[in-house]
Inverse folding.
């Protein structure tokens, strides 16, 4: 399923656009293609396949509702015919740029932004709807400036993680605002991320260990202009030893908008056609820049030393490894003495952004009944390194 908009005036978001929904098969062949809209601009921003075989489309409309732009939710059946459509908003501008979600109980979550109510210019806006689009609860989150939600995911604890851009908090023109919410929309914690420039996240996912991965753009670091930005934060939104992390104080308010039912029908797109496109991938050479500065983005969960007979067994494990090249081991005869690298070649990385790994290195160039101290160095692909430790052990006859 693909959703967007189509218009005849050639404008990116012109006044005569309609919502466009396409269904294609696994080979990209068009199954059906339909439009939905009124006399003004109507724009789909996300589509969700629902458990009943249909889909849920969200975006904003200028043709229907109570204000200049209203958030809309369009429920379709498996053939693209309208089951129901509601708008949500008042006299201001109320929009959705984020994805929708379906809960296990058949209710829906819709995220957007509103300047009809809330704490500031635009605020994050989160609505929980029943299966027919009636509002179960609705809340806004934000400060005195512009805050716009762009991505929403349900978390394994039954709550939600909501992110987007903020001008109310942080260091730059726009920063990323990340809110962890419980299942009723109450804020558990909130963080902002960014440098002196501009940037924010467009997507967020929860990893297997409860951390969160955000993807977006920023221009506070990198090789120039706007760069892709990937962040991994722990289950409380922190990045250890990273100066771009701040704690926000977004204000949670209840909003009181009521849905407006829209009588609309699908219009089959005239003479739809599938065009086979041929293109070749272009190889690119890009390098990662550590946005946090002097620390690598390798999350170490343990580093231990175990004595053995004329040997010390070193073991460590990671929770995640972003752009990790590998590891070095350093040894010293005293905790604060000079450390010397003892591995001949870099110990290659085995983990990834979403998956850690376990490692073992045995130092056999030691003597019994003598204490040794070890440090672990991780090195990323840009040559930035971080030291861990020390740990110590005294080899002995076991």
């Amino acid at each position: 399923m693909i959703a967007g908009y189509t218009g005849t005036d050639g404008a990116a978001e012109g006044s005569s656009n309609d919502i466009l929904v396409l269904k294609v098969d696994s080979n990209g062949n068009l199954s059906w293609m339909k439009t939905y809209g009124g006399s003004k601009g109507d724009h789909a921003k996300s589509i969700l396949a629902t458990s009943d075989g249909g889909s849920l489309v969200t975006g904003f409309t200028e043709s229907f509702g109570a204000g200049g732009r209203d958030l809309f939710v369009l429920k379709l059946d498996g053939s693209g015919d309208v089951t129901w459509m509601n708008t949500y908003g008042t006299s201001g501008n109320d929009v959705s740029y984020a994805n929708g979600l379906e809960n296990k109980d058949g209710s829906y979550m819709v995220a957007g932004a509103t300047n009809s109510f809330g704490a500031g210019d635009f605020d994050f806006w989160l609505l929980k709807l029943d299966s027919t689009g009636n509002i179960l609860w609705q809340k806004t989150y934000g400060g005195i400036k512009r805050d716009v939600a762009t991505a929403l995911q349900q978390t394994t604890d039954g709550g939600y993680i909501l992110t987007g851009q903020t001008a109310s908090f942080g260091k730059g023109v726009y920063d990323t605002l990340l809110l962890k919410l419980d299942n009723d929309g109450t804020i558990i914690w909130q963080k902002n991320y960014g440098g002196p420039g501009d940037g924010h996240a467009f997507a967020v996912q929860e990893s297997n260990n409860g951390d969160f991965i955000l993807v977006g753009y920023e221009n506070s670091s990198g090789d120039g202009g706007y760069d892709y930005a990937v962040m991994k934060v722990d289950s409380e939104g922190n990045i250890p030893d990273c100066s771009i992390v701040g704690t926000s104080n977004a204000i949670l308010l209840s909003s009181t908008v009521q849905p407006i039912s829209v009588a609309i029908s699908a219009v089959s797109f005239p003479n739809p056609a599938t065009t086979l496109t041929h293109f070749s991938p272009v190889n690119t050479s890009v390098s990662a820049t550590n946005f946090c500065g002097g620390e690598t983005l390798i999350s170490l969960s343990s580093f231990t030393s175990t004595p053995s007979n004329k040997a010390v067994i070193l073991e460590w494990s990671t929770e995640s490894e972003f752009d990790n090249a590998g590891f070095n081991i350093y040894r010293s005869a005293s905790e604060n003495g000079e450390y010397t690298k003892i591995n001949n070649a870099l110990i290659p990385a085995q983990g990834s952004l979403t998956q850690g790994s376990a490692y073992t290195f045995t130092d056999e160039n030691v003597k019994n009944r003598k204490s040794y101290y070890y440090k672990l160095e991780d090195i990323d692909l840009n040559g930035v390194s971080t030291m861990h430790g020390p740990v110590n052990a005294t080899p002995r006859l076991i």
Q: What stands out?
A: DSSP finds no helices and 31 strands in the chain.
